[in-house]
Amino acid sequence: MFDLVWLIPTLPALGVLLNGLLGRKIEAANKSLVHWIACSAVGLSFFLTCLTFLELLQLPAELRLVEFTWFNWISAGEFQSYWAYQIDPLSMVMCLFVTGVGFLIHIYSIGYMGHAEGRYYRYFTYLNLFMFSMINLVLANNFLLMFLGWEGVGFCSYLLIGFWFGNIDNARAGKKAFITNRIGDFAFLVGLFLLITHLGKHGVWSVNFTEVFSHASALPPGIVTAVCLLFFIGCTAKSAQIPLYIWLPDAMAGPTPVSALIHAATMVTSGIYFVTRSNILYQMSPLALQVIAVVGALTALLAASIALTQNDIKRVLAYSTVSQLGYMFLGLGVGAFSAGIFHVVTHSFFKALLFLCAGSVMHGLANEQDMRFMGGMRKKMPVTYLTMLIGTLAIVGFPGLAGFFSKDEILWKTFASGHVLLWMIGVFTAGLTAFYMFRLIFMTFFNECRASREVQAKIHESPRTMTVPLIVLAALSAIGGYIGVPHALGGSNRIEHFLEPVMGTGPGKLIAGGEHLAQEAAHGAYHPSLAVEYLLMLLSVAIVLIGIGLAYTLYVKERERPVQLAERFSGLYRLMFNKWYVDELYGLIAVRPLHRASLFLWKGIDVLIIDGVVNGLARIFGWSGTWLRTVQTGYVQAYAVSLLLGVAGLMLYTLFVLVP
Amino acid sequence: MLESMLLYLAAALTLVTSVMVAVTRNTVHSALWMVASCFLLAVVFLFLRLQFMAALQVIIYAGAVMMFIIFAIMMLNLRVNPGRIQLRSTKTAGLVLVLFLFPALLLLLGMGRGIAALQGQVSLRALEQFGEVPLLANVMFSDYLLPFELVSILLTVGVIGAVALAKKRKD
Amino acid sequence: MIEHQSLFLALAVTLFFIGAAGAVVRRNAIIVFMCIEIMLGGVNLAFLTFTRTTQNLDGAFMVMCIMAVAAVEAAVGLAIFFLLYRKTGSIDLEKFNLLKW
Amino acid sequence: MSPEFILPAVNFQCILPQILLSLTALLVLLVDVFGLVKKANALALITLAGVVFATLTLFSGTGLQETAFSGMILVDGFSFFLNLTICLILILTILVSMNYQQFFPGINSGEYYSLLIFAAVGMSFMAAAGNLILLFVALELMSVSIYVLVGFHKDNLRSIEAALKYFLMGAFATSFLLLGFAFLYGATGTMDLLTMTEFIRSNPEVLSSGLFLSGVLLTLTGLGFKISMVPFHMWTPDVYEGAPTVITGFMATGVKAAAFAALVRIFMVPLGSLPIDWSMLLWVAAVLTMTVGNIIALVQDSIKRMLAYSGIAHAGYLLIGVVAGGELAQAGILYYLLVYAFMNIGAFGVLALLGKKETEYNTLQEFSGLGLKYPVLGLAMAVFMFSLAGIPPTGGFMGKLYIFSAAIKSGYVWLVVLGALNSVISIYYYLRVIVVMYFQESGAEDVAFPAPSPAITLGLGLAAAGIMILGVFPSYFWVLAQNSVFVPM
Fold first, then answer.
1. Which run of H or of E encompasses A320?
2. All domains in chain C, ordered by first residue
């Protein structure tokens, strides 16, 4: 089966070729053939991935690294890079859910994009290209091939975000995503160059992961830190962290399945994957890890607080993605790499689910995205409602569902590694998450419908091609967490053991930097007992419940209060008054400041400062361009003068510098 | 001594005529000054004992190129310059730059004079033969064969180009 | 005449810059072109001076090439001026700035 | 006493491709003059056949490593690679030109094709020149042909104005170059590059003489003009905009390739032993060139002019390679020149196809919806834009990667950082073309595009395929480039 690994990325590539070159004709002849090609390409590669995965499981843990070299790709003197794939636990875990969730999204798209006449084939071409890039990214066994995929997903996201290009805003959002990503890529490339050069000094002219990591200990610590931080900047762009997350909320402009694809299974997870893949490097640089942890926690908090006030259903989900990614980076930053990957996996299930549900709602509501014009969808779209509820419960970390295990794992590891402050941020964010996610649920599915008459008349449950993926994903969101039940709950944390061979800290793999970290952990002297772990777990569950309760009070209960007051609780004015007082207090001490703060964060920091800096830079370049071009007067002799000026410059330099 | 005096005179006259080319308003006069300048430069070449080059200078520049230019001036009826020399700010800047570059380059040239340039211990006999045609002709068809042939292509291109630009289209 | 080397060189540089100044200042395209020819005259003189001092015929041959090139450039350049004149009735360089910015 | 005449050693094998090219040029001219063929594209096809044949004979000289014509030309891997690049440029330009005659019938003439070929002969001799004399004559052969080609659109005042500007500035800059050559010659006593290298090695004190330094300075000016290095770049946008669009593509790539070849031959080898300070100067020039080109390109409305400014920026990236020095950087420059040829001729080819008759001037708006109406054309343009922006997996990315990594290896980290930042800036305006092409509905006024002829389809297809091959499977050409590095014997 390992021999067929090359087929996994090649199948989507074939899909791209078929649909890309002949799509127009295929679509004209038989529209369903287009999605048959695209879906079967991805489905087959998912199937192959499963087979490969099973075969990998047959191997003993220490042998679980199989490399498949296709051909010599780039050779520059001593420097060699191959087009080669690597099968190991990490790449398999990633590849499994990338192809799996990707496949489901493909199927969902059949129903969702059915109206896109004339662009149908184009959409599926892009989607397959996306899968091809992402598979290359996770399967590559070297930095360069990975970077090809890394760029590829950026490019595809650009194409897909701007898919509804009739509206220039969408095109602009696509461009924003692309440019932001390029800024990150630029840092990434510089880091890569730095790594290659310094490894070259030790005679290692390779970008192969295994080789690089096994020689990493030869690098000076300063360089490692620099490389790690530069790589991390690249990851902040791809995985939407402070300060480069700004593209992601705008990326909502794309068709909803695309949002699901970008947010859940692919693209944004590539940063997490990369850091985990390079965990050996990162463990050599405590500073870089610290930076990652802090940035992750702050991103989680910032994004969650912004999500509180958003009314656009997809925007809420977008910020929640940013926030969840923050969690993952927090996990990576405290050295819990497998916990990060675990959360990536569970998150891919429920975030894909949530987006697809949101898409389903929009589909039913004539593409309405504003939650203020939704409501009461519970009865009209029961499947969507139920699945979305499961997804929401999973994301807020309701006990027993997928998100609970993975999020708790991260929080626990954060606490156990001594980052109490970061842990507090994480737990608080969990509360916020519960609040805004349930706010979304309540505003969308509860109360009366606030959509216009004509729209209301047409509300319908989505077609089978859409609901089936929802159900599958809901099931995964419900049970997906059981691959990593922690010891404290009687599980064996299978995913952590499975990933162990990839981690630098695995048995017998302790390297110089890792030892340092281990020592530090020992000095931290945090060895909390099981009791503490249970306590913390309960605490976070409690906070989640508070969040849900608050949302319920404010978005379901309070709204119906006048009716209730008049009919049932007419004798209990006092109590009601008190209740009202409590609500007001909530409003005063919690909700209103939060509301304001989040408005401030959104409008002030997000829009004004970060977007402002980016746009400001663009404007400065624009101005200087406008100014500089006026030099170009069109008169030949002015050009001759500029030539003389150049000669004079050279002359001055020669006279004063070269001739001492 | 006399030769030095004559050299100085020729050099000075070359400069004067060249300046006149650059400042005369009337285009035809300017061109005539240019012819004079070419002749005088040929005279300067003579002082280098390069008789053949001097002859070429007269034949090609003064004879061919300048006649060409004067012919063009006549044809375009441009005897009087279309406008007086106005010093726009960029042009003033250009003049200032030239006034800076000129002494600067001379200064630079004076620093640590070129090595090969100083090795010029030439025997009198070689000196006299040097300017003669056979010596040059000899190398022209051996060492310099390729650039020589390329120059012939270049002249062809010149003809093609001039014709292509100046002719009126058939259709 | 070896002792006059610096004189020849200075003359060459001076001619070059007289030409450069004229080329920058004059408006008439033909005169600008003639000024460039003066610059080339300076270059020729420099080459010939060096061919003397270095006893090497490279410089002399180079000068022949430059002369040929000057003739070719004159032909092509005048054709361009001619074309321009036919189109606009002028060869005043300050009248042509259709292409700018 | 007249010296004995020594018969020259003539090795025609070494200049076979150039001879064939010249013969083709003359043949086309004669065929046209005597009106031997009447069919519309016959001249172009004859030219194409000759050029392709010459390109094939080029391969018979693979692996040659010798000097010929008394050191006048160096037949080595370096000249082979560049000759290959130049021949490809020529072939692509001819293919693209075949459609272009709809704009002005005069282009379908013997003069046009023969001048095109002669310019390429000049370029290829520049790349092979081992002597400043030959370098100069070849440079003039190239330049004079291109002066004429730029003004070939005789009904269009813009074209004539561009020719005027290029001609005057070219002649002006060439006199600086010549003065520089004169000083180099005076300082080292030779015009032969290898002898000059030898002389500098044995007399290092020459490096600090004013004569030599001013020679280098003025040579740099002259070559800097040809590669449009800031501040000698001012002519570039005007001439590129005014010239017939196919010629713009031709000169942007060909002249740049030839001039960079000369720059590498002179600056990276004989003067490679120069004090480090020169690279400092080139460092500044590279940064200025990239930045000025990119920043002004940001604010252009005309795509043609935008590409002209971007051409300046690309010269800056190539200069990074010159600054970096060393064999890796040389190979990087060669590779980049090859990629650049494909992407630039491709981009200008698309513009040539779409240009308006009178102005050949396309605003960005006129491109709106192009990608939807003409998917193949749009896709090709997108490939060219992505490659120019240096986005993987295109060849433009690999080219930049090679040059940048060579610079990093030589320790110019900041230069690379600035270069990478610049390419981030450039993405903005390249991407804008794609955005308009794909993501904007076409405006009210429809630009009537002539249907692409098979020739132009082939040309653009070749260019796009070349970019993708160079981007995805760079190994072969990269190894070729590395084996083509110029090391003086």
1. helix A313-333
2. 2-92 (1.10.287.3510)
Element at A79 (helix H, strand E): strand A79-87
Q: Which domain holds residue B10?
A: 2-81+127-166
Same domain, A412 and A555: yes
Burial of D178 (0-12, 13-18, 19+ CB in 10 A): buried
Look up residue C86 and give its two tokens. 């036919």
| Residues in chain A closer than 8 A to C96 (CB atoms) | 634-636
Determine the residue of chain A that is closest to B94 in CA distance: A641
Mutate to test the interface with A, among D211, D227, D234 (most CBs of A within 10 A): D234
Across the interface, whether the CB atoms of C36 and D181 are under 8 A apart is answered no
Q: How many domains is chain A built from?
A: 2
Q: Residue A171: list chain D partners with CB under 8 A.
A: 435, 438-440
What pLDDT is recorded for position B115? 52
Q: pLDDT at position C55, please?
A: 77
Chain B interface includes C10 (CB < 8 A): yes
- On whether residue B101 sits in a domain, the answer given is no
How many structural domains does chain B have? 1
CA distance A169 to chain B (A): 44
Q: Is D105 on the interface with B (CB under 8 A)?
A: yes
Chosen domain end from A513, A542, A568: A568
Alpha-carbon dihedral angle through residues D293, D295, D300, D302, given to the nearest 10 degrees: 30
Is the per-residue pLDDT at B29 higher than 50?
Answer: yes
> Tens digit of pLDDT for each residue in D365-403?
777 777 777 777 888 888 999 899 988 788 998 899 889
D279: distance to nearest CA of chain C, Å?
27
| Tokens coding B43 | 């005279």
For residue D361, what pLDDT band results from cuts at 50, 70 and 90? Answer: low
- The whole domain housing A434 covers 285-568
Looking at residues A356-363, what average pLDDT do you find?
84
Nearest to B10 by CA among B48, B63, B61, B65: B48
Dump pLDDT digits (tens) for B109-142: 877 655 555 554 444 455 556 656 777 787 788 8
Token digits of residue A180: 């932001």
Q: Judge if A640 and A519 occupy the same domain.
A: no
The residue from A568, A591, A622 where one domain ends is: A568
| Identity of the residue numbered A321 | T
**B104, A640: Cβ pair inside 8 Å?**
no
Pairwise CB contact (< 8 Å): C24 & A641: yes
- Judging by beta carbons within 10 Å of its beta carbon (0-12, 13-18, 19+), is residue A28 exposed, middle or buried? exposed
**pLDDT at A19 exceeding the cut of 70:** yes
Task: Establish if C13 touches chain A: CB-CB under 8 angstroms.
Answer: no
Domain boundaries, given as residue ranges, for chain D: 23-483
